[in-house]
């Protein structure tokens, strides 16, 4: 597979089926005794993918072979409607037989600075390191309409030079505290997949792909040693057709 690629799908279900088949293939690529390290994105977009995978992937994916992390989390209780963990739990984990010890929740209820340090230790202890950084097999990213990824927002691109694996940050408009992967951790992944759907994202997709500066954090996503894949539905990719 070439290093950077864009796939546009007629529907979100077609996109999810592709993602399912790709996940099955990735699991088959690794040795029997190895687990796949996957970091999930937050927001609303992954919900449809999670629901599809939890239904269609019941039998085809050996879910016990995957360790689940998050690339970012809101500093809220796990029961909060705002929690990325809660969305994944309700639409995905609760429907599949995934060992509790394979789910590495970011503790949104904890002190943000302490949690960024704790989660950095979790990554160090549970994700193989490469070039001194956790090297995920797969990091799934959403795309904000302002070009943010995880919780790296415009104006905060110094997080791509961070020496930490995780950082405590604030949402620029709501002030909501968040925990996020730093840029170097994201760019160290073997596979980075942007999951973008909906016509409201078509404009920012074009801007990010054509960006000539670091205005949009998403345009700084460039895997050092891995592959970047954009999975778009027709609406989000309409500007590219
Ligand atoms: C979060 C995210 C964030 C999200 C984008 C897209 O915690 O909100 O991880 O980066 O992926 O904002 O969000 P939507 O999928 O809701 O458009």
How does this structure look, described?
With 241 residues, the protein is α/β, with parallel strands linked by helices. Helix content is 27%, strand content 21%. It has six helices and eleven strands. It has helices spanning 12-29, 45-56, 84-91, 112-126, 183-187, 202-209; strands at residues 4-9, 36-40, 66-70, 72-74, 129-130, 133-134, 138-141, 166-170, 177-181, 191-196, 227-233. The strands form three sheets. Strands 1-11-10-7-2-3 form a six-stranded parallel β-sheet, with helices on one face. A three-stranded antiparallel β-sheet has the order 4-9-8. Helix 6 (202-209) links the parallel strand 10 (191-196) and strand 11. Helix 1 crosses helix 2. The protein is globular and about 45 Å long. It starts with a strand and ends in an 8-residue tail after the last strand. The model has no long low-confidence stretch (mean pLDDT 95).
């Amino acid at each position: 597979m070439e290093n950077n690629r864009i796939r546009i799908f007629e529907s979100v279900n077609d996109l999810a089926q592709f993602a399912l088949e790709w996940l099955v293939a990735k699991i088959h690529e690794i040795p029997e005794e190895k687990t796949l390290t996957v970091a999930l994105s937050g927001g609303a977009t992954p919900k449809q993918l999670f629901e599809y995978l939890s239904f269609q992937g019941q039998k085809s994916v050996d879910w016990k072979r995957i360790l689940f992390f998050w690339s970012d989390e809101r500093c809220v209780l796990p029961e909060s409607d705002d929690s990325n963990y809660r969305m994944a739990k309700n639409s995905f984990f609760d429907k599949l037989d995934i060992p509790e010890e394979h789910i590495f929740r970011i503790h949104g209820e904890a002190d943000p600075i302490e949690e960024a340090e704790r989660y950095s230790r979790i990554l160090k202890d549970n994700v193989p390191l490469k070039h001194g950084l956790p090297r995920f097999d797969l990091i799934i990213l959403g795309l904000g309409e302002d070009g943010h990824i995880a919780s790296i927002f415009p104006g905060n691109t110094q997080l791509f030079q961070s020496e930490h694996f995780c950082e405590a940050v604030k949402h620029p408009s709501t002030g909501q505290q968040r925990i996020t992967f730093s840029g170097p951790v994201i760019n160290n992944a073997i596979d980075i997949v942007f999951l973008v759907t909906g016509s409201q994202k078509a404009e920012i997709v074009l801007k990010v792909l054509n960006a000539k500066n670091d205005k949009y954090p998403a345009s700084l996503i460039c895997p050092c040693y891995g592959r970047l894949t954009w999975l778009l539905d027709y609406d989000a990719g309409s500007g590219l057709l």
